[in-house]
Design goal:
disordered N terminus, 46 strands, alpha/beta, 7-stranded mixed sheet, 22 helices
Amino acid sequence: MTAFCLLLSAFCLLPSAYSPPHAQVRAHTDEGAVALGFMLRRLQTTASVLHTGAHPDDEDSALIARLARGDGARVGYLSLNRGEGGQNLIGPELFDALGVIRTEELLQARRLDGGDQFFTRTFDFGFTKTRAESQQRWPEREVLADMVRVIRAYRPLVIISRFTGTPADGHGHHQYAGYLTPLAFRAAADPREFPEQLAEGLRPWQARKLYVSVFNDANKQANDPSVVEISTGQFDPLLGRSYYELAMEGRSQHKSQGEGALELRGTQTSRVRLLERTPDGVQHDPHEQSVFDGLDTTIRGIARLTNLHSDELDHELTDIERDASTAQEKFNALDPRTVLAALSAGLSHTRATRATVKNLSTQKDASNEADVLLAQKESEFEQALQLATGVRVEALADAETVTPGDTFNVTVRAFLPDIKLARYRGFQLRAPAGWRVEQQEAFSPGPPDAPTATFRVTVPADAPPTQPYWLQRPRKGDMYEWTKDDPQTLPFAPALINAEATFDTGGTLLVITQPVEYRTLDPARGELRRALNVVPALSVELSPSLLIIPTSAQSADQRMFAQLTNNARGEMAGQLKLSSTFPENLTDKLLRAQPTATPFTLKNQGARSTQSLTVNFNVQEHSMYGYDVIGAQAVTNKPEPFTLTERTISYPHIQTHRIYAPAKATARRFDLKVAPVRVGYIMGSGDEVPQAIERMGLPVVLLNEQYLAVGDLARFDAIVVGIRASQTRPDFVANQQRLLEFMQQGGALIVQYQRPDYAKQNLPPFPAQQEVKTENGQTNILRVVDETAPVTILQPTNPAFNFPNKITAEDWQGWVQERNLYSFTTFDSRYTPLLEAHDADESPQPGGEVYARVGRGHYVYTSYAWFRQLPAGVPGAYRLFANLLSLPKASTSK
């Protein structure tokens, strides 16, 4: 299937009835009379909007809900990236894995507010303050091509940019998105731009109007006719609440970003300013009340919208419009049968009109445009018919995961509330090329209102693992790699297998498509649905995946573990072997592992085996900095060894996904010392800093709620507070007096970055602030986003820079993504600033790391991005953090 066809399928333009995307949110807007009411509303119009932004959570979700649910428009949100560079409030996942989570969270939000979701291929490299850096790391032509692709496929009448493309947007990604949107608005209509897309089957498209969001009241003048104010607080009887309330429920799905929102009632508005409009096809109204003013978005308007001239077409469009209007007028939530005749007639008329349009060969371009709109109407009539008849189809596999060569069963069942309204005509199972599908039983002897068919499906022996399509190939810099076979710009690839059920609804054939899923019961959460995934028969994982080897060691023995997991349904047996990425003539000198090959037998699916390994690195022979020194593979009777580590991303609010990486461990060798201190750790939102501390040779105790409340804190020399603990650990907030006493008695409290609520709650031992007011009245936080920004040590004699490691300029090399975030902006004189760093052309910022004596102990607030540097194996970060941990053993004299 071409990328173009996949895009059309995502937009419900193919002639098959609607099935909701995989999601964990159970939106009442998807089912029953409410869903039917919204679909009838959409049937009346051809209105469409594309909203653009830079990240997950940038979108004006209230505006999306109003336009999609209230006005019945097709509305898409195009995000430049998937938010991989942000922080994670709900777990330890960062970078690519975080992007998977945030993609899912966007889908949950769209399921509620009624929008569609798209992306470009950019990777979120983290916060930037300039458009120039975004432009440098995301090549303009490539990003613009992706935006044009979405516009040409989605074909919106209106485009609304969230951002202006100016420094007023703040984040450099925002500025870039605002800068590119007008370029895409024009380029999508130009056949000279990106002609390779036209060769694929896409066609140029000129959106009629371009708007930009207006963020505050000061920008709306009473006599400014270019600003349109749109009510989002309006109550909708179908929803039983306002669009704003619905949108905020969707907003609260952005859980990894901590975007939970109040579902406020009452007056709420979104504002947009008209930037451009095409001279043709738009009747200019100097005082617009809607973004669709001046556009003919009626069904009859399809002919005018596409410049298609035919008397026969005008009559047929009038028939379709009458059918849609009749269905809406006759809608009775308690008896959906009242709309069946009008919907059946509308579907038949739409199909006939498509045939008429295709025969208008003398107006090929116009007829193609009209056919796209009519295909959308056909899909909407089908969806409405399905909802009105109450027919439901489910396609359930007997396994959530299958391995290459596996055979599994799929049961397809339809549920017909009234067999007089819809009669079953047959089932089919659609699988990718190379998959074998055998129908076992065409029709079960069960009741006529629940026809059932079973299929036996065999997975090809060379089937690749199922993972997000944009992660199947290595990134090139900060851009993902797509191929022509990928579903480019879509959130995820379509389901592996789909069931098709055909019904006769009063003489009109209706085909319902349903993705094959796995159903399971969670005793606490109830029924769960999971997407069918192909997984490797064996998963191989080495831990730890990062080894830190001090240069002071003459010869370093490292204890490692190799874990094997059997994903196959039967027994898997073979040998686990280790390999080195050193040159072959050096391997024996540099690396010795015991044992080098270990037999294993895993009896059944889910069985695990953990092998203990001792790996010896002869550190005198070679510097191992930067080497991927050891890999693992499971050799069985299969043609190829198993070399992938499977990582499952699973949270209650999103669909489960799996991503894969080579089974390997990386070694870093550098000068590292640490004092023999006892460390407690208060985990916040989730990070991998405790593992890094253990790599230094220090045991770490994770302090749970009970221990923090009544445990013996005096047993620790240092307690480290994880990122965002003030948001996620109420017990951390509640036990500040105990932590204060811990410091007064001689302990060191090392607090990693916290959000501004940390200072607002007066949690530091002395007053401090984490926000600063700008000239325009906005509240900002201080951060240094350039990971290469110079860092000045303000207290060169402080033990933090001398014991046990002597810190030099080299320790600031090789950092990833950023220096610090959420620094102190102002602070009490009892704090001593230790470091100063700032981005180019900005004022000095000494609040990134501050120190204070508290009684006999130590307090350090350090906003430097240890949670990124330590898992990445940055040598200087280990040396700096080791010194902080060692403070209780160091002299505190200045």
